[in-house]
Amino acid sequence: MSTSLIGAGIPRIDAWDKVLGTAMYPADLNMPGVLHGKIVFSERAHARIIGIDTSAARAYPGVVAVFTHADVPCNEFGINVNDQRVLAEGKVRSLSDPVALVWAETEQAALAARKLVKVEYDDLPGVFDPRQAMQPQAPLIHEEHGSNVYRYIKVRKGDITAGFAQADVIVDGYYTTPFEEHAYLQPEAGLAYLDDAGRISIHVAAQWPHDDLHQIAHALKLPQDQIREIVGPIGGAFGGREDISIQIFLALGAYLLKRPVKIVYSREDSVRGHGKRHPFYMKYRTGATRDGILTAQEIELIADCGAYASTSGPVLANATSFAPGPYCVPHVKIDAYTVYTNNPTTMAFRGFGANQPCFAYEMQMTKLAEALDMDPVELRMKNVLVNGSVAALGNVIESGVGLKETLQKAAEAAGWRQAGQHWMAPTLPTGSAPYKRRGIGVACGWKNIGYSFGFDDKSTCHVTLRLSDGGISSAMVRIGVAECGQGTTTGLTQIAAEVLGLPLERIEMVVSDTSVAPNAGSSSASRQLYMSGNATRRACLKALDALQAAHTGADHLPPVIEAEATFHARDLRPTTPFDPETGLCDPHVSFGWVTNVAEVEVDIETGEVELLRVYAAQDVGKAINRQLIEQQIDGGIVMGQGYSLIEDFAVDNGRILTRNFTEYLIPTALDAPRDLHYIIVEEPDPTGPFGAKGVGELTTIAVPPAILAAIHNATGLWLDTLPATAERVRTAIEQAEARQAPGTAEHTIIPVKGRTQTA
User: Fold this and answer.
1) Starting at the edge strand that comes first in sequence, how are the strands of the sheet with 98-104 ordered?
2) Of 377, 509, 616, 661, which has fewest CB within 10 angstroms of its CB?
3) If you write DSSP's letter for every residue of 220-258 in order, what string do you get?
4) Strand (E) or helix (H) holding 641
């Protein structure tokens, strides 16, 4: 079989509509007689609702209805547990809680009327730090849960006491990461109506449309087959569209009012109305022998769940599984918590629990290398996982481990050289001005591909072959993936065309409508190419088998041949949940691997950090489309840059202070690194389609520790809190200067029992 389409840099099949502006996003859609909806958000972070007065709002000219909790047939929903209310009932738990929903003939009338809804509150004490929320006397966010600790996970591998006894050097660190806003270009928007079949049809941007159906149906007390979700172009997602946002509001409006309804969030509504990346508080102790072999890791993770569970349980599980890093560590102890607070809810975000511990474990490795007087690349080379290694949770990763090659290729591209068994870092040029210093840093990362811990991850594809003259004239591939801009539909088209032996233009992809496209699962967990690629490949092969059978057993071929296949990941590589006592398990279906090298220039007078260049080595298994991979790397690096340096999402006692893009800064094209070097490593996963793995989330997770290591290399300063804003960097410089010992602020070496410990 020719593989000419696999690996080719084919432009995205949806590119022209987006470039020319002909793509219709949800906010662009309209219908005659449409009503406009606006949300009334809570004005308290934690309070009982005494009463809601909607009379003035209902009397406002043009207002058709004002919904409260009493209008919701079943007032609960949630992607994992139903701890959220469609409209607040009884009490509010965050300033992001929706309390009422105004419907009016015009958007202006809805905006004016929502200001007239009066809510009487009885304030309750709030708690805004998860470490305080864990305390026995802390106010309870969900009384029925009995504790603010939503989930606790422990891991006990080996003998942690023996592991540290074997260590010659022990490094301690405490790391914090912030909330982060998804900042997608298109705020939440959607249109809903009753279609000709009487179904509630919802046009919206979403990452898992089939999962939305059961949540909507549950809230409205309707069968799922009475609801249809159509996902068109998506103006960014990054995990922020995995949870329900406005879907239930739209369905409720169309169902109760029997008119088309539309909601378009402002940027302020969007920032307030959807969840954020989880802040983490991470305590690490890492031990190693004098020659750099890791012996033990003791870790505590505390994540801020916010007011509702969302995906906090799975995020914590992922974070726990990755917390010791992509290294062989024989002795591991982890205690991990995710904790309810009255802050904004936290949820899925690109990387899904892999990012925060990557910052911590890679900073530990960089500090450990300095304590050992060893090159940071050399230290990592001694410890990285390879094929057949035993990972942190006791699981053996038998194949597809390309981390060592990514590390070697990224280091060599950045100027590292080997001298015998040792590695030597490059000598950097001096800064571009006397007050500027250059530095370089390296970081590795790993992440799961697909859903984990025993979940039955699956994807279904239906293929229709259209026949003429005894052969295939064209094919229609139906698979319900949400195309979030990552290029999945292009990659799946390439796979289908390759298997069927057709040119790309003769493959028709049908992906957007839950009524005609089967469930492909969520466009998250870097899973779609792996999961839906396997489903597409199998369905195409099944269709070819059916065609061959038709040739053999019939005088005349039918006009079409149809086949459907469901790929279950666990059939090839089953996963298991955490053991309740030890935490040991086989957590993930597949893994992706990455190494980033970052070079920065630090202005020591202002504290500003410029990211000059990045070397991004990505193990993709098999490159289905190199152009798409490079585009993913572009976006991932810049997103990681923002998380590292400027995205400082400010929350004060639950109140969001950075409400829009004039207050919450994200990188622009002018901030992107001058040089970005793509290094694509192909260590095939034998279970992936043509050996391919997912790539989207891996591109961003190791960027922050590479940048922070480079800042240390330039200045001697250890910055253990993200983001490393100019203010934080300059403050650290001033503090170091005041002590007349730059670089020793949080990294002094003291003797401990004949060894050394970094304090």
Assistant:
1) 63-67, 98-104, 35-41, 261-264, 189-194, 200-204, 227-230
2) 661
3) HT--GGGEEEE----S--TTTTTS-SSHHHHHHHHHHH-
4) helix 626-645
Angle at 221 (CA atoms; ends 216, 227), nearest 5 degrees: 45
Measure the CA–CA gap between 367 and 749, rounded to whole angstroms: 11
Residue 195, helix vs strand vs coil: coil
What tokens were used for 231? 């996902």
CATH topology identical between 34-124+188-264 and 157-180+276-452+580-752 = no
Distance CA 624, CA 635 (A): 18
Other Cβ atoms less than 10 A from the Cβ of 549: the count is 11
Residue 86 · residue 249 · CB < 8 Å: yes
Break the chain into its structural domains and give their ranges. 34-124+188-264, 157-180+276-452+580-752, 456-572
SS (H, E, C) 99-149: EEEEEECCHHHHHHHHCCCEEEEEECCCCCCHHHHCCCCCCCCCHHHCCCE
pLDDT of residue 420: 85
What's the pLDDT tens digit per position in 460-481?
999 999 999 879 999 999 999 9
Alpha-helix runs per DSSP H in 334-418: 355-371, 376-383, 403-414
The answer regarding whether domain 157-180+276-452+580-752 maps to CATH 3.90.950.10 reads: no
DSSP state of 427: P
Reduced DSSP (H G I as helix, E B as strand, rest coil) percent helix, strand, coil of the chain, to 5: 30, 30, 45
Distance from C-alpha of 674 to C-alpha of 438, rounded to nearest angstrom: 14
Q: What six digits make up the tokens of 511?
A: 């992906």
| Pairing of the two strands 261-264 and 35-41 | parallel
CATH 3.30.230.10 fits 34-124+188-264, yes or no: no
Q: Residue 409: what are its φ and ψ, rounded to 5°?
A: -70, -40
C-alpha 730 chain-centroid distance:
31
The CATH class of the 456-572 domain is: alpha beta
